[in-house]
Amino acid sequence: MFVEFNALPDHSRVWIYQSNRKFLPEEVEQIQLRTQEFLEQWTAHGQNLEAGFEVRHNRFIVIGLNQENASASGCSIDASVHFIQSLEKEFDLDLMDKMNVTFYNGPYIAHKTLADFKAMAKSRSVSGKTVVFNNLVNTKAEYKEHWEVPAKESWHSRFLA
Fold first, then answer.
1. Nearest to 73 by CA among 96, 42, 40
2. 145 to each of 30, 71, 153, how far by Cα in Å?
3. Domain of life of the organism in this record (predicted)?
């Protein structure tokens, strides 16, 4: 069952998929349409899942699930992964690679491999103050409070000199 992302409680589970590139405006429309269609029929063991999503910065797909009434099962999580993979194929995107880092570079959002980010940290092109996107947050509350954080406050801190 699709609900507006803002209507989900703060304890809802979230999954964040970052793109290797910015979505084009026409892609955002299609991604939103397809994601809503998927969430409207997403189930676990025959029970509808109360889920919503948002597209942030034309680069991230954030799916939230209220697990009070029904939790995601292995099969339903597999279905969501297959859905994301279908978006990757349709729009020629990389949404599943967790070995990339996305961060603010001035007013722009940069997307680098982990190796490149490490090299940037070593050369001091990024610092502890660099705002990174911590896609490892688990709940909507964590997403709201700890998704865009200084690198020194996230798992990225291990790469800083």
1. 42
2. 28, 23, 12
3. Bacteria
pLDDT single digits (tens) 75-109: 888 999 999 999 999 999 999 998 899 999 989 99
Residue 61 tokens, joined: 């797909």
Number of domains in the chain: 2
Secondary structure class of 49 (helix, strand, coil): coil
Q: Which amino acid makes up residue 9?
A: P
Are 79 and 151 in a shared domain?
A: no
Q: Which DSSP helix (H) or strand (E) runs through 38?
A: helix 25-41
Are the C-beta atoms of 111 and 100 separated by less than 8 Å? yes
pLDDT of res. 46: 80
Q: Which two tokens stand for residue 132?
A: 């990174």
- Chosen domain end from 91, 113, 128: 91
